[in-house]
Design goal:
heterodimer, A: about 140 residues, 5 helices, about 45% helix, about 25% strand, globular, B: about 150 residues, TATA-Binding Protein, 5-stranded antiparallel β-sheet
Chain lengths: ~140, ~150
């Protein structure tokens, strides 16, 4: 009977979400400062800033106003070496942080890289966990 | 050798059954969409861009990452017809924006890959299911046309 209870508990654990899918941070700064601090934090963490996609501008050109809405794309410093060793990670890169406004202010949000792992390789999982931790720290640096 | 008692066998079978159901409930979407190209790297890049435009998708920019053993071209694109509805419905959809297809030449052939937007949506636990499924199907078509 104990085994039965254990089995049921494991099954329920398998159905429950492991944790929040997004790494999120609410900025206490205004939009320009938030964007500037974020880009500085990314570079200070050793990551390579690729570009900022101004989604809000694209929408404004079509008559839709959503407020601030930018996607910041950046690569880990070892990106070329990583893709040589693990080309299956190409779809996950560059990493992204979305910056947008909601009713309470500015939100920075990034989907946890470990949720989309295309491989069971422990080395890949370790890489994704490290990137996830780095993104967590970058978000905290924004203020 | 020890044998499992009857109730332990039942528990084990129950665990396997419920785990299978849990896996099915989570969805069987692969996290990544892939295709092999019979063309060289540059031709494949051109064919991907042409296929994207053929589906009324705007190519925003591309970005190349070159290593010692291969090179990868990320081709970023956007569906400006669907974007307003997506962003106004759930701003967290930015986790898959801008969309992209990657062309990779790793020395043993040219391959296409893209994050599966429906798998990302499921992982993120957000709405916009029909839109993400449509986008996934468009990506599959683009990759098929580019490698035809």
């Amino acid at each position: 009977m104990r085994a039965l209870i254990l089995a049921a508990a494991l099954a329920v654990a398998g159905l429950a979400p492991a944790s929040e899918p997004f790494l999120q941070h609410r900025s206490s700064l205004f939009a320009p400062e938030t964007m500037a601090h974020l880009q500085t934090a990314i570079q200070d963490a050793g990551y390579q800033l690729r570009f900022v996609q101004p989604v809000d501008h694209g929408l404004e050109n079509r008559g839709v106003d959503v407020g601030l809405y930018r996607v910041v794309l950046f690569d880990p410093p070892e990106v070329a070496r990583v893709l040589d060793a693990h080309p299956e990670l190409a779809p996950l890169l560059p990493l992204r942080i979305t910056v947008y406004e909601d009713d309470q202010g500015i939100v920075l949000s990034s989907l946890r890289p470990t949720l989309l792992t295309p491989s069971d390789d422990p080395a890949v999982e370790a890489l994704l966990r490290r990137w996830e931790q780095d993104i967590r720290e970058i978000l905290q640096e924004v203020g | 050798m020890q044998t499992l008692s009857s109730d332990r066998w039942q528990a084990l079978l129950l665990l396997v059954l419920i785990s299978s159901l849990a896996h099915a409930a989570k969805g069987a979407e692969p996290p990544v969409l892939t295709a092999s190209s019979p063309y060289d790297y540059d031709t494949t890049v051109t064919r991907v861009e042409r296929a994207l435009k053929g589906h009324n998708l705007d190519v925003l920019r591309d970005l190349e990452v070159a290593g010692k053993q291969g090179r990868h071209r990320h081709i970023f694109f956007c569906d400006f017809e669907q974007l307003p509805e997506a962003v106004t419905t759930d701003k967290r959809i930015g986790c898959i924006l801008p969309c992209k297809v990657t062309v990779s030449d790793t020395g043993d052939g040219v391959r296409l890959s893209a994050m599966n937007p429906e798998a990302a949506r499921q992982a993120a636990g957000i709405g916009l299911k029909s839109l993400c499924i449509e986008l996934r199907n468009t990506l599959i078509s683009v990759m098929q046309e580019a490698t035809l």
